[in-house]
Amino acid sequence: MSSDRPRPRRLRSRYTNLAAHGEPWVWLTGGALAFALTMILGLLAFIAVRGASTFWPMPLELVELDDGRRALGEVSGRETAATAAEGREARPARRLIRTANFELSGTHYEWFDEVRIAASSLPEWATAVERLEGGRFHGFPKRLLHGDDVVAEGPAATWAAYEREHPPAWKRHRQAVRIDKVERGELQRRLRAARLAVVQAGLDSGADSPARVQAAARERDVVAHVEAETVALDEAVAKLRAANEGWRMEFETAAGDTTSLPLDGIVRAWQPNRLSLLGKLGVYGSRWGEFLGDDPREANSAGGVFPAIWGTVAMTLIMALLVAPFGVLAALYLREYASRGPVTAAVRVAINNLAGVPSIVYGAFGLGFFCYGLGAGIDELFFKASLVADSQPTFGTGGLLWASLTLALLTLPVVIVATEEALSAVPNSMREGSYACGAGKWQTIRRIVLPRALTGIMTGLIKAMARGAGEVAPLMLVGVKKLALELPVDGTFPFVHPEREFMHLAYLIYDVGFQSPNSQAAQPMVFTITFLLVAIIALLNLAAVWLRSRLRRRYVAQQF
Amino acid sequence: MQTQTQPAQRLVDPPAVPTDRLVAVAAGGEVTAEVHDAVLRETPVLEIDRFNLWYGAKQALHRITMPVAHGKVTALVGPSGCGKSTLLRSVNRLNDLVQSVRITGDMRLNGDSIYDPRMDVIELRKRMGMVFQKPNPFPMSIYENVVYSLRIDGENSRPVLDEVCELSLRGAALWDEVKDRLHDSALGLSGGQQQRLCIARAIAAEPEVLLLDEPCSALDPIATGKVEDLIQELRGRYSVLIVTHNMQQASRTSDYTAFMYLGRLIEYGPTTEIFTKPILRETEAYVTGRFG
Questions:
Q1: pLDDT (tens digit, 9 = 90+) per residue, B236-274?
Q2: Does the beta carbon of B138 lie under 8 angstroms from any beta carbon of chain A?
């Protein structure tokens, strides 16, 4: 056992040396990071490319098959030939063409085998038409008609006439729609308010009370007034419609059919094969403009998503405003006031577990507690008339306020946990220094602890916003609707309507992509909506990050 | 495999410390402190009276009785864990914040009982200033740091605050270095400047007693020198109670020195006497660095 000479130690062992050096771990950890980054960036790039290219005017290809059939459309995909394999038949190379003209062909897209394509070309006058109803139309302009008069004939003349006649016709159409939506809606609201006032008066002071009689008289006034106004509106709309009446544009499809479209049913038309780059950019910009600023059409698969953008942003911001004070106050109590003990520890564990509850559970809770509980109570107290007269709940159903509250509840654990961490990162020496100056507990928290913890709290809020903005499941239960064109803020008294149902981009993805009757045609739209949602969430987060970095600069921490 | 092990060689001999008192203390016994008469002749600003303190079941301070002289610098010395800092933190009742602390006995600040149940702790702390081991400037501007105690009292008059800020910074020998950047973050100062800022903050409210808890332990030698000079200047204007590890610092800066060991006060007297001709040999052994 005991020898005087030290045994020579082997200094190098390739095996242990490698592990000690850490090279394998560098590769492993770096590889994991690279893998994660590739997945995330790949997903984002895919969404961005597909989403951003939806509105680009693609060339229209005219395909002639060997049997004489012809089709006109955008090439949306190609497949190479596949050989026969286990359980799979051999398939020749083929291309997918968006043929549009659904009412004629019964399909939006069609596969064509490459071997059967005799010729394909990019005809100059090929026109893509976006219609108010019926989806995309592809064809060649033939004639422009006004009643029985032929205004123009032949592709060039017809197109020139279209470019001249379409803008005023479209403007008249928009005006008529606006009258129908805004002004008639306003009249309807006034009628309803007057009717509800009568019911309310009856509820308050009895069926034969003078108050009710008075309200009934006022309602008659309103009805008379509304009727007069309606006549005026009808006239205005009729005039606009009459001016558009009879304007039709005739197209010849690739298959040889002739179809005529009402001029004011055309949202926009373009001839991608003739367009210069600038012209294409114009079409691209105009389609983005409609997408961002307009109401949806055709079961949300076309038109814009403005109400959904509005709903998403409003809901996220209201949620953040609700969750921030509650979360911060709760964390303050837990960290600064509550004495350490088993109860505090249990509460902390419970909060952490709350973060893991499936979001649909929050949705169900929100529906049961906020909508059917709180909301029904509010209706009973303040909106009884609507309940009695129309059996229509006001707050007693899903709405922006309830959805925001539900999501605030959902994200509350995130904020509490982050705030607690931020508070515990404030060194105790700060607190002691403040107490030694004679500051009280709350003064210390407000002047020393909160400013120091602010950036950490903001981080928690950013995480909460990112989580809340992407939720769909609970929203479906507490107020998000497929279509809700009335925004929760508008010109009608009291201008803010937090009880209104709203639209949300994340729900729109689900609805357009998977619930739409023509989900095939809506597919490009899904990518664009997704792209937009990701961009909006990123923007909201960037704004919060910017705010945080400004705060951090104010309370810059330096080591010595 | 005990191949190369040589018998461990002691670098120094065990200190020849006269240990009867220290052994008694270590065994849990009580000792009577040797308090020089000179201490008792001073006017006390703070009187510590039979003060005991427990952390849970562990007693950290044993029957400390000592007056602290008005307008003088009093140093608390002793080996680590002897309760110096605990005693200091008991003076402004910072120990109240620690759960499981229990005390008996009392202290009096200019005659007012500190541990009287009717005493408002917040008002009490406003009558003292405290500086900690590590500089702890608040995350705000230099100016706001200095006037913090006035701000929390609701003082918002600009001229008053300006005057207090300048006086305190001059008092802490920091004015010339920071007068051009009063509204910059205090966290941008060097460690020594931060500590002097903390001293300025502590004297801004004209404290009756200034508590310094090893104010130089986190500083480099140059910054330490500046803070020590400052303590010299504070002498006479403020009553200072300072905890220190550093014997030279205690001998340079203080008028009186108290030697503590394991929660007991062992000897307390004028600094010159403690360092040159202490009554107890234990004290001599400690201040000459033979143990501790």
A1: 888 999 999 888 889 988 999 999 988 889 899 999 999
A2: yes
Kindly determine whether residue A6 and residue B3, on different chains, have CB atoms separated by under 8 Å: yes
**Whether residue A167 has a cis bond before it, omega within 30° of 0:** no
Cα A40 from Cα A28, distance rounded (Å): 18
Distance (Å, rounded) from C-alpha A200 to C-alpha A215?
Answer: 9
What tokens does A125 get?
Answer: 């006058």
Contact B99 A435 (CB under 8 A): no
Using DSSP's 3-state secondary structure scheme, residue A359 falls into helix
* Euclidean distance between CA atoms B210 and B175, whole angstroms: 20
CA distance B56 to B100: 5
Q: What is the mean pLDDT of chain A?
A: 86
Q: Do domains A55-81+91-140+248-275 and A306-358+410-554 have the same CATH topology?
A: no
Tell me if chain A has a CB within 8 Å of the CB of B120.
no
Chain A contacts of B188, Cβ < 8 Å? 556, 558
Q: Return the number of other C-beta atoms located less than 10 Å from residue B95's C-beta.
A: 20
Instruction: Confirm if A96 and A107 have CB atoms less than 8 A apart.
Output: no
Helix (H, G, I), strand (E, B) or coil at A400: helix
CB-nearest partner of A556 from B129, B187, B201: B187
Entry pTM = 0.80
User: For residue A559, is pLDDT > 60?
Assistant: no
Q: Which of B136, B190, B194 sits opposite A430 (nearest CB)?
A: B136
Per residue in A237-269, pLDDT (tens digit) is 999 989 888 899 999 998 888 888 998 889 989
Whole-angstrom distance, CA of residue B3 vs CA of residue A398: 81
CATH architecture of A55-81+91-140+248-275: Roll (2.30)
- Cβ under 8 Å to A: B residues 49-88: none
- Shortest alpha-carbon distance between residue A372 and chain B (Å): 46
Q: CA triplet B96, B99, B101: central angle to 5 degrees?
A: 65
The chain A residues in contact with chain B (CB within 8 A) are: 1-7, 339-340, 427, 429-440, 443, 447-448, 451-452, 554-558, 560
- In this structure, which CATH number among 3.20.20.300, 3.40.920.10, 1.10.3720.10, 1.10.340.30 belongs to the domain A306-358+410-554? 1.10.3720.10
% of residues, chain A, pLDDT over 90: 32
- CA-based nearest residue to A394, from A366, A381, A375: A375
Whether B4 and chain A come into contact, CB under 8 Å, resolves to yes
Domains of chain B: 25-136+206-287 (3.40.50.300)
Q: What is the ipTM of this complex?
A: 0.87
Domain boundaries, chain A: 55-81+91-140+248-275, 148-245, 306-358+410-554
Q: How many CB pairs under 8 A join A and B?
A: 94
Asked if A439 lies within 8 A of B148 by C-beta distance, the reply is: yes
Q: Cβ distance A512 to A519 under 8 Å? A: yes
- Non-local CB neighbours of A524 within 8 Å, separated by 6+ positions: A50, A54
pLDDT tier, A10 (very low <50, low <70, confident <90, very high otherwise): low
* Length in residues, chain B: 292
- Give the DSSP letter of residue A495: S
Select from A532, A40, A545 the least CA-distant residue to A313.
Answer: A532
What does the alpha-carbon distance between residue A128 and residue A268 come to, in Å, rounded to a whole number?
8
